[in-house]
Amino acid sequence: MENTLVQKTQLKRAVKSASIKDYLELCKIKVVALLVLTALVGLALAPDMGRSILLQSLSLIGIGLLASSAAVINHIVDHEIDAKMARTKNRPVVKGRVSRIQALMFSASIAVIGFVCLVFAANWLTAGLTLFALVGYAFIYTLYLKRATPQNIVIGGLAGAMPPLLGWVSETGQLAAEPWLLVMIIFTWTPPHFWALAIHRREDYKKANIPMLPVTHGITFTKTCVLLYSLLLALVCILPYLIGMSGYFYLASAMILNGVFIYKAIKLKLSNTSDGAMDLFKFSIIQLMLLFIALFIDKAIVA
Fold this sequence. Notes:
It is a single chain. By secondary structure, this protein is mainly α. The chain starts with a helix and ends with a helix. 81% of the residues lie in helices and 0% in strands. The chain has 17 helices and no strands. It folds into 2 domains: 14-173, Tetracycline Repressor, domain 2 (Orthogonal Bundle); 176-303. The longest helix has 27 residues, at 276-302.
């Protein structure tokens, strides 16, 4: 009884000590920043509809807030799993710095603000698609796919690949073929990105009973899949150039970035250890960021 009271007291103190940093961590702010960048590029590549910078900025803020809301839900749903893994054991909900109720209220609040931003600054289609992406990641992937199949990343990757399409639709109010190519790039990039991390953290995922590919099929097989997806990614990244959506600057950038990606994937495949997995994971983040910046610069050059 006394121990229980002590634990409750410690939890209350921890919750009271929650900081802005804790809430930003709940939002996975670095991940969301990358998603908003891809949404910005989708918006920039869309036909100019004469919308103001203010409306465009509010649209991106709305997309970012809904993505953040999904990230917070991920923290809530996965708090027991996170407690078992070295990479996530110090997260705010796990440590009690933010209670699950507080996190849920925060998630709902920023989701409502984000949705309202999209309805008024963009259009209902963007708001609906963004909400669909939130549900896809926060519930379908986190609650079910993540725990159900080693193909969780492949199937659930579509939700995280949506921002370029959302940026485009926020500008035009309608779907088109071009932004789906940008979605395909992120969709194809996601498996080798996450599988590289899963190789590095295989024991953590095994301990948490999460059926990631290295756990269910072994590291050697996963390395092969990473390499194959890296080759597929290189092909997909050429498509924007082939349809005239981008020019030579983007093409050259894509070839260099994907060349390095493939080199690191081959190096990981041929290695007898998993030491190169984290190197590939870190580079993949830089690769995607620079790839979309190259698309943005290419558009500016043409303009």
